[in-house]
Write a structure and sequence with these properties.
The protein has 423 residues and is α/β, with parallel strands linked by helices. It is 36% helix and 22% strand. The radius of gyration is 22 Å and the shape is globular. The structure holds S-adenosylmethionine and iron/sulfur cluster.
Length: 423
């Protein structure tokens, strides 16, 4: 075992899990490779939230069949949401895969390593790399209890489990000591943090505790569920200087009938009131959301209501997905996927075109303004980073700016990013 290759698809939680795996393998003395062909261990971290992602994983797995045949000594491993309790089925489908483990089933992966003379995986130690990125992901909750009718996540990632508050604070402190300047706290319903812990701390308590971390510049959290977004949390975001004015609050649909069928637990009116309260309490807040179009039974009128919510709310960012029936979910079991794929795609494209227009208009208001950018890295000779509102900014800078707060005067804008020069 000398070299490893990790391929990751899906949400930030998968990215965070892949980082733990990479940190462990680095510590064990293995070297990361760019291609699977060079590696002794090829690990795929999968996503099955939509069929499109699952197809990509299956294609990637199939592409490794020949490699395993020509080099039977390599290990091919699969983790992520494609791995459920029916591992025997996966073994039948992909017999060239040597190891399957469910998301964060670290004991199984660690045992695999130990059997090859590697040290054990230590979650605490391996969650803090020697050189963390400027903006580091920190999962604070795992799993989800919500069972939205379309979503496979609770079936694959299990019940909601919050991490201990002190443990999270220690991890953040270590990350900052090693160079991280921003942490992005992750959870499927991140605003439900702590409900399952004995002392019942909440996300506002955790943010307040982290706000005192010396050397830490910014804190973000995602993804929030409208039903759990408390007044206390909104006040904490407004009052704590390191917590960015940026809330990711998926609405999923703009029609109450669709929301009910999705089992989301709120109405569009309640969502609107919540957004009103957030905007009154946190001036300049950036709001992002997720939307699913083409949910079973969604009529043209119901889709128009989603478009109207986008028009009225003017989100800073919207992730738009066409509904994809997923095995096990209650929508797949109980509702007919009756919107034709061309219709779904047309609705997706229409919503995206509207949102691009809105985002371009919002971003244009930054023209000529000076924004504070936390510099992350370089791409094609330009530095890039984000504003507190999560807007991507490119600019020409000087050497060694990663981790600095830069003042950038905006000279060009688009729906997707801002460009400017250093002040
Ligand atoms: N926990 C978050 C929430 O409550 O919105 C998001 C988690 S989910 C993995 C990420 C996004 O994928 C969702 O917000 C939803 O828009 C989308 N998604 C989930 N299941 C889907 C499905 N079956 N078809 C299309 N999009 C889906
Ligand atoms: Fe899926 Fe709903 Fe849980 Fe989000 S809240 S992970 S959409 S079940």
């Amino acid at each position: 075992m000398k070299q490893y290759h990790i391929w990751t698809i899906g949400c930030q939680m998968n990215t965070a899990d892949s980082e733990v795996i990479a940190n462990y393998l680095d510590r064990a003395g293995l070297r990361k490779t760019e291609t699977a062909e060079e590696a002794d261990l090829v690990l795929l971290n999968s996503c099955v939230v939509r069929e499109h992602a699952e197809v990509k994983v299956v294609n990637r797995l199939k592409s490794l069949k020949g490699l395993k045949k020509s080099r039977p000594d390599i290990t091919i491993a699969l983790t992520g949401c494609m791995v459920d309790s029916r591992i025997e089925d996966l073994k039948d489908r992909f017999p060239w895969v040597d190891l399957f483990f469910r998301p964060q089933q670290w004991d199984v992966f660690s045992r695999w390593g130990e059997n090859r003379g590697l040290p054990s995986l230590n979650q605490e130690e391996d969650s803090v790399p020697p050189n963390p990125p400027v903006s580091a992901y920190v999962p604070i909750m795992h799993g989800c209890d919500s069972f939205c009718s379309y979503c496979v996540v609770p079936y694959r990632r299990g019940r909601a489990r919050s991490r201990d508050l002190d443990e999270v604070c220690c991890q953040v402190q270590s990350l900052v000591q090693r160079g991280a300047r921003e942490v992005v706290l992750l959870g499927q319903i991140v605003d439900a943090y702590g409900h399952d812990l004995p002392s019942r701390p909440d996300l506002a308590d955790l943010l307040a505790a982290l706000n005192g971390t010396e050397g830490l510049l910014r804190i973000r959290f995602l993804t929030s569920h409208p039903s759990y977004m408390s007044r206390k949390l909104i006040k904490a975001v407004a009052g704590l200087n390191k917590v960015c004015e940026h809330i990711s609050l998926p609405i999923q649909a703009g029609d109450n009938g669709v929301l009910e069928a999705m089992k989301r637990g709120y109405t569009t009116e309640e969502y609107g009131d919540l957004v009103g309260h957030i905007r009154r309490t946190i001036p300049d807040v950036a709001l992002s959301t997720d939307v699913i179009v083409g949910f079973p039974g969604e009529s043209n009128e119901q889709f128009d209501k989603t478009m109207e919510v986008l028009r009225q709310t003017r989100f800073d960012k919207v992730h738009i997905a066409a509904y994809s029936p997923r095995p096990e979910t209650s929508a797949t079991r109980n509702l007919r996927d009756d919107i034709h794929s061309e219709q779904k795609e047309a609705r997706r494209a229409q919503a995206e075109a509207l949102q691009n227009e809105i985002a371009a208009e919002i971003n244009a208001t930054f023209m000529g303004r000076t924004v504070e950018v936390l510099v992350e890295d370089q791409k094609k000779g330009k530095w890039y980073g984000r504003t507190r509102g999560d807007r991507l900014v490119f600019f020409a800078g000087r050497a060694g700016m990663a981790g600095e707060l830069a003042s950038v005067r905006i000279e060009k804008t688009s729906a997707f990013a801002l460009q400017g020069t250093l002040e």
